[in-house]
Amino acid sequence: MGTPNASEGTQGGPFGPWAGAWEETIDDLFDQIPYGLFTVNSSGAVLAVNRTGRELLLGGSLGPSRQPLTCCDLICNLAGRSEGADENACLTQEALAGSGPMDEVRVELPPESSTEAAWVTVSPLGADGGAIFHLRPADEADPGRAGASPYPHPRLRIFALGQTRVENAATGSIGGQWIERRPGQVLKYLVCARQQAVDADEIAQALWPEADVRVLSSVRYFVHTLRSRLEPDRVPRMPSAFIESRRGGYSLNPRRVWIDAAEFEQLVAAGLAALVAGEPEAALRRLEPATNLYRGDFLADEPYAEWALAERDRLRELAGRALRALIELRLAADDVESAARHARRLADMEPYDSDAQRRHIELSLRRGRRTEAVRRYTLFRRRLARDFGQEPDFALTEVRRPEDDLFGD
C-alpha cells in the first residue's frame, strides 16, 4: 500500500496573533469529543489523535515505537483489507481529491482496539492542507451489518441549544408536555452528561435534591417512561436503541442519537484547529455551520437548573470564541457585512462584555450605521450603570473615526 511521507510538517502557520491562545482549549476539546478523531497533513503524516481515537486504533497509547505515524499506519491499511476496497488507496489522498467529506466506510479494527469495528469518514481541511478522520464505533446492531444502508444515520435528533426539541428521524417531532415533566428532565440530564453513564442516584440527587425517598426510588420508572415516549413501538423487554444501561447507569447511545450540542462542539473544535493550522477557508466552513447550530443557550428551558449551568457556560464560551474568530476571518476577506452580523450576535450574547460591544460599534461605524452605534453605546452605558454602577471603559469618541459625524443621521 502506498504510504505517505511522514516527515513532512504541517503546511501553513498560525492564523493571526490570537491563534496561540486557543491551542490549549482546542487540545481539551479535541480529547473530550466522544468519537475517534485524528488529523493529518497533506502527505498523510499524523498531527494529533484524540483519546477515543487512541483507544480505537492504538489500544489507548501512542507508543514511541509507532512514530512517525501516517494515516496508512492507522487506518488506510485496515480499510484496504475490506471486501471490494483498493488495497493501495490512501484515504487522505482520496479525501483531498474530492470536494467534501468522503462516504463512510466500515473498517475492522486491530485486536488491541476497544471495539471490533468502526465507521470511518474523512474530510479535507483546506485546499492546501490536510484532513480530519472521524471514527464512530460499530456494533452488531449497526444497520451497516444487516446491509440496510452502507451509510447509516442517527435515528433520534435532540436539539438542546435553545428550547429543547426531540425528533425521530423516521416519524418526526416527539413533542408534548412530557418534555417538561420528570421523564423529560431525565432526558435533559442525560444530554448534559452525554459523554458518560450516570447512575440513578446521581440523576435523582441532581434533578430533585429535596424530593422524598419515593421520588428518588422512581428514577428507573422515569427512565422506563422516557424510553416508551422515545420508542413507542419498541418490543417489550427488547433493549432500547436510544438509552443504554451500562455499569449500573444510563447513557444516550451515540451511534443512534444525534445532539446539536455535540455537533456544535465538534465543528468548533475542527474550525479552531483549522484556524491554528493556517487554513482560514476550512475554518469558515466549520465555524459558520457551528454558529448556525447555536440557536440559544444550552437547555434554555431549564434556566435555573444548577446541574446545567457549567455546561451552559462552557458552550456559550465556545460560541463566543467561534464568533470572534468569524469576525476576524470575514474582515480578513474584506466581508464587512458578514463580520458586522457576527459582531452584533456576539454583542447580544455578551451584553456586559466591553470588547464585544466596542467591536460591534466599530463595525457599525465602518458601515455608516452611526445611529446604531450611538444606540448600542447608550444602551451599554445604561446597562452597566444600572447593574454595576460603572461606566464603560471606553468612550464613544474613542471608536469614532474623524470623518464620522455621529449625530449626522
Concise structural overview:
This protein has 409 residues and is α+β, with helices and mostly antiparallel strands.
Oligomer: single chain
State the low-pLDDT regions, or none. Answer: 1-18, 82-86, 140-153, 402-409
Strand order of the biggest β-sheet = 2-1-5-4-3
Query: If you compute it from the alpha carbons, what radius of gyration comes out, rounded to the nearest whole angstrom?
Result: 24 Å
Characterize the overall form.
flat
How far apart lie the N and C ends?
68 Å
Name the helix and strand elements from N-terminus to C-terminus, one letter apiece: HEEHHHEEEHEEEHEHHHEEEHHHHHHH
Mean pLDDT: 81
Percent helix: 40-55%
- Strand percentage, roughly? 5-15%
Number of helical regions: 16
Helices and strands: which structural class? alpha+beta
Major sheet description: 5 strands, antiparallel
Counting DSSP E segments of at least 2 residues, the number of strands comes to 12
Explain what this protein looks like in three dimensions.
This protein is of the alpha+beta class and 409 residues long. Helix content is 45%, strand content 13%. It contains 16 helices and twelve strands. The strands form three sheets. A five-stranded antiparallel sheet has the order 2-1-5-4-3. The chain has a four-stranded mixed sheet with strand order 8-7-6-12. The protein has a three-stranded antiparallel sheet with strand order 9-11-10. A hairpin with an 8-residue loop joins strand 3 and strand 4. Helix 6 (182-192) packs across helix 9. 39% of the residues are buried. The model is unreliable at 1-18, 82-86, 140-153 and 402-409 (pLDDT under 50).
